[in-house]
Write a structure and sequence with these properties.
globular; 5 helices; Rossmann fold; five-stranded parallel beta sheet; 21% strand; alpha/beta
C-alpha cells in the first residue's frame, strides 16, 4: 500500500480545521493542531508535504510561525499555504514575501470543497 502524503493543519478554530480535514481526508493523512507552538513542534518532528496555516491565532500568529518555519533548515522545505479571513492584498503580500506558496481566504471558496 502506497503511503499517502501528510498535511498539517494549524488553526485555532476547530470548526475551520475540521472543515478542511473533511475536504482533504480521502486523499491525505491529516494532522490538526490548534496552536502555532504545537504546529512548530510537529513540523520539526514530522514528515509533512504541506502546512495549511491560519494567520490569526492567539500568541504566535501565522506570520510569526511562517517566519520560524522558513528560518529552520528542517522545516523550510515544507510548502505553507496561509488561510485567513483577512482578505486585503497587504496581508496576502506579507505572507507571500515571508515564504508562503499561496493564500486562501475564509470562508473557503466553493471550488475548494469540490477538490476532495
Amino acid at each position: 500500500m502506497e503511503k499517502r502524503e501528510s498535511i498539517l493543519i494549524i488553526d485555532d478554530s476547530a470548526v475551520q480545521a475540521d472543515m478542511l480535514r473533511s475536504i482533504l481526508i480521502e486523499d491525505y493523512e491529516i494532522t490538526i493542531v490548534n496552536t502555532a507552538e504545537e504546529g512548530l513542534r510537529l513540523a520539526r518532528a514530522g514528515d509533512f508535504s504541506l502546512v495549511l496555516l491560519d494567520v490569526i491565532m492567539p500568541g504566535m500568529d501565522g506570520f510569526q510561525l511562517l517566519k520560524a518555519l522558513q528560518e529552520e533548515v528542517i522545516t523550510q522545505h515544507i510548502p505553507v499555504v496561509l488561510i485567513t479571513s483577512l482578505g486585503d492584498t497587504e496581508h496576502e503580500e506579507r505572507g507571500l514575501i515571508l515564504g508562503a506558496v499561496d493564500y486562501i481566504s475564509k470562508p473557503y471558496p466553493p471550488i475548494l470543497s469540490r477538490l476532495g
